Amino acid sequence: MILDEPTTGLDIEARYEIWELIRQLKGQGITVLLTTHLLDEAERLCQRIGILKGGQLMAEGTLEELQQAIPAKEIVVVQTAQEEEAIARAREQGFTPRRYGSDLAFWLPESLELKEILDRFAGISLESVSRYPVKLEHIYLEITQPERNQEFFIPEEIPDPWHP
């Protein structure tokens, strides 16, 4: 069965009903091809996920396989007026800085307790800290827009324009 954006425009109750119907179809052994822009919907319902951009298949696999595209155990989003200091400290800790919209995020190579995260940013004023698993939205952005985080790229050697 092919379902093209079946929950777009529905209220949350109707959305849950459609999700249950899809689960029932899967339980009966019926293959469901689901197209959706709602990435949390794909995470909940799909055994295999394909990421399309411009009509091209950019990546395909289980959620667990796709999560391997991001070398992180979890993602932490912080709000701080001291962004430059937070980015420098994060790099010292082995965290990879990223922007998701206007959010400043860090890929953590290991899962940490909240206290450990706060300790790693000691001396930097953090207004908020939010923790997330690596989600399909992060994977989508990294796979389809790898250039979006160029502000965090540090070249190995900065060329000297006066002495080529």
Characteristics:
about 25% strand; two-stranded parallel ribbon; Alpha-Beta Plaits; 8 strands; about 35% helix; 4-stranded antiparallel beta sheet; about 160 residues; alpha+beta
- Unreliably modeled segments: 153-163
CATH architecture annotation of the largest domain: 2-Layer Sandwich
Name the structural class.
alpha+beta
Please state the CA-atom Rg, rounded to the nearest Å: 20 Å
Note the beta-strand portion: 15-25%
**What is the molecular shape?**
elongated
The end-to-end span amounts to 61 Å
Give me the secondary-structure topology.
Elements: E1 2-4, H1 12-27, E2 33-35, H2 39-45, E3 49-53, E4 56-61, H3 63-67, E5 74-79, H4 83-92, E6 96-100, E7 103-108, H5 114-120, E8 128-132, H6 136-144
Parallel strand pairs: 1-2
Antiparallel strand pairs: 3-4, 5-7, 5-8, 6-7
Describe this structure in words.
- β1 (2-4), α1 and β2 form a beta-alpha-beta unit.
- The protein is 33% helix and 24% strand.
- The strands form 3 sheets. It has a 4-stranded antiparallel beta sheet with strand order 6-7-5-8, covered by helices on one side. A two-stranded parallel sheet has the order 1-2.
- It is an alpha+beta fold and 164 residues long.
- The chain is elongated.
- The N and C termini lie far apart (61 Å).
- It has 2 domains: 2-47, no CATH class; 74-152, 2-Layer Sandwich (Alpha-Beta Plaits).
- It contains 6 helices and 8 strands; from the N terminus they run βαβαββαβαββαβα.
- The longest helix has 16 residues, at 12-27.
Quick summary:
Helix content is 33%, strand content 24%. It has 164 residues and is of the alpha+beta class.
